[in-house]
Amino acid sequence: MDETNSTQIRPDFNRSITIAGSDERLTSLAGVVCLRELDEKLGVTRDLARAFEDPRDPSRVEHSMSSLLRSWTYTMAAHSCTQLSTSRLAMDPALKLAASDNKGVSPLGVSSALASQPTLSRFLGNLGKEGNLAALNEGLFQSAARGIRAGNKGKRLAEATLDIDSFPHEVHGHQPGAEYNGHYRMSCYHPLGVMVGETGHWIGLDLRDGNVHTANGAGELLLPLVDKARKEIAHKVYVRGDAGFPSVDFLDQLDERDVRYAFRIPTNKSLQQWEEILAVREPGRPPAIPRTWTHNVTYQAATWEKPRRVVVVVQERPGELYLHTFFLLTSFTKEEMSADETVDFYRERALMENHIGEHQSILNANLASTNRPKTHIKRKPISNTEDPIDAFGANAAALLLHGIAYNLANTLRCLIDRGIEIEGTNGMHFKSVRRLFLAIAGRFVISSRRITLRVPEVMMKVWSELWAALGNIPHHAAA
Description:
The protein is α+β, with helices and mostly antiparallel strands. The protein is 39% helix and 19% strand. It has a domain at 24-119 and 375-478. An eight-stranded mixed β-sheet has the order 9-8-4-10-11-14-13-12, sandwiched between helices. A three-stranded antiparallel β-sheet has the order 3-15-16, with no helix packed on it. The protein has a three-stranded antiparallel β-sheet with strand order 5-7-6, with no helix packed on it. Helix 2 (44-51) packs antiparallel against helix 7 (130-150) and helix 3 crosses helix 5. The longest helix is centred in the C-terminal third of the chain and has 29 residues, at 391-419. It starts with a strand and ends in an 8-residue tail after the last helix.
């Protein structure tokens, strides 16, 4: 028999209603059990936790690195991305069960709880150290590679496109590296990311100062990922990006690796000559539907050692008198990809922009690590060192954790799209994944040392299909 709290509320609009608290094991995030099942099959947080350096005294450790990592990433994926939210959900039975290293019913004990906000802050500060940041970068890549193979019967894709782009992350307060960016007109960080265009998984994220150029550090981030992606994600790897990225060294290194690419390039005087020749309407009355013309030309910039193929794209725009022109630089030959196909290939990078929008609006990646004077604390610190944390490194770690959380949830979405034959589940937005599969009301019942999770009957058909999809993940997908 569940005991109710002595504090009760009675609404005035209907005095027959009584609201009372209960000690019953209720949760609004029952779906994190699905995330743990997926994570267990992929081995993402398990292997990542083993790679971390843990400076804590083992005799005083209450929460393992793996449980801290799971509680943070699962909360990010299913609910919110703030340390405060994770702390408030410390007694949520679904999160406790999913994050725990222990088996049986012990994770649901009254005395067990997830980490507090100060513990999570120290955890994040530790992850901001150089060695742990390197482990997080590898963990981000593996969360994508294993998730992609899991959705492809444990095998690499035939082809994959690596989209590279930067995006603003608005910052409030005095955080190191946050600068005013004149293009975005805000104080922000300016992260650089690499994503697998066909699936939407992050494979690289680099936190940068807010005022750096779009392409700053692009080669250092992308080129090693190209080599790794060829080994673990796809047999053939292509690269795609906007006009800010194709520098001389960057293009030369892609050519040395025999990587096909397509980049938009800015207009200059030499290219304008082609524009004057090719941006001409055909004779006759324009049709109701705007037209697009494409032309192949050979172009060599002054700093290039060799000429390269450029596709000139001429567009009609509704209501505009003059034609619009832009240029695509590509290493695809005409036989491999026609001019029209090159334009279609480049335009598919809009999918990355959609995923970035999801990542920013749904995950709400709050970066707020900074060193503040703690004048109100009168006790001696537990740590043996007085050195402040690397706040920028902690924020970089938080960004990578957000990427891992997104990858886990995105793998779940990909499995749902391919393995569940239920109307309305194909091509779901991240918000729908949360609503249908993660943010689910549930009740835990313990009987004879067994745990039963009860969810609404209407959700059981959907969950049954999901569990079948999880069961089809090959063991070698995590290899």
